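User: My instructor asked us to take a sequence, write out its structure as tokens, and then describe one feature of it. I'm not sure where to start. Here is the sequence I was given:
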Amino acid sequence: MKTCRLLPLTLAIGAALALPVRAQSLLALYDAARGHDAAYQSAKSQYEANLYKADQAKSALLPTVNLTASASNSRIEYQEPAGAPARSFDNQSAGINATQPLYRPNSLASYQQGTRQADLAEAQLQAADQDLIVRVSQAYFDVLAAQDSLAFVQAQKAAVAEQLASARRNFEVGTATITDTREAQARFDLVTAQEIAADNDLRVKRLALSQLVGKVDASPYPLAPAFTLPALLPEEVNTWVQQGQEQHPAIRQARIGVELATLETDKAKAGHKPTLDLTASVSTNRNVGGTALSSTDSRYNMTTVGVQFNMPLFAGFATQNRIKETLALEDKARSDLEAARRTVAQSTRTAYFGVVSGLGQVKALEAAEASSQSALDANKLGYQVGVRINIDVLNSQSQLYQTKRDLAKARYDVLMGGLKLRQANGSLKSEDLQGVNSLLAPAPAVPISPAAAPRNQ
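Assistant: Let's start with the prediction itself. The structure tokens for your sequence are:
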């Protein structure tokens, strides 16, 4: 009889944890999000635009070539000598002009800024990619946590239902009071309300994940039935902080910002410096009907090669004030760099100790789960022999399932904490998802064993 009574509870747990046919791994959903997420696509397009903008800076150092052409008609009417016939003539010309900069310090600084802008764009895209990894992973584990919460609530509901049936039977035979039945009914109603809320929360979490990855049926794999949380390596927090100072995208952007500000000062100082260009032109002119001085048709070709020197002398103090402005902006860029370093160090330490704390919480909750199970077994036995009342069993059931929910969430938080720690120190890459992905199981995992569920004696 006990086996038969356990069967509905086992089926309820299995149904609650059953996965849709088209479940996806974390890596698969991340790859889908890279091609769908609007924020990442925006950052990618901005990256490509910045690369093209950086290439534009080369143009100031390369030659410029222009093709020119003109045609005109002129008419001459003579006042002296009187009676001379009026006449008209045409002028046609075409030419090619070329200029090659030889010395332009302003253009050289702009070119160097362009190369650094490309590095800046790369750092910005890296930051966007890390943000996408964290957002997808968070949405992924939010769904898993919601699935677990619903499964535990449904399992608790089945256990409470069984306890309610037991209280009713005992009341009917006179071995229990109506109070036990009413307490079990109240707890059953409460768990039913919790089930409705958990089901809605799961629906919302799945919608958020589907919108992020662009899949209507997005459904994640659960964690494997037996797995070990990865150790936190390296174990020294200062090592994580040092890595962040070297490679974090925000620090790289701030460091490049200092270099760009320095080059901007060089451009401002170039306002006092001369420029030198090599010029060349080839042109042909044709006069049909003569010119103003001659009535004979003519045609001639002209080739010119030379250098053009320009020396600025006075610009109304604009150059001096521009230099002062850029020097102040250099100081600002250095302050921004220092602020970025401090922020990265602080966030890295915070994330590190969060993971350490999470690992400790997991161990404590694992012990609490075992203790809660033992307490439930003891209360059930006490209820059978009459030293415990029904509410004691119900409270033990609630404590056990609450502990299971907390433990499942704590494990997800540790996995997310590891990814956020790598984001905090700037080392997060898509390859880091491989380790988390290896902890997932394509088949549904059932974290509650039938032995853990309350039995009707």
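For the description part of your assignment, you could build on this observation: Residues 105-172 form the longest helix (68 residues). Try explaining in your own words what that tells you about the chain.
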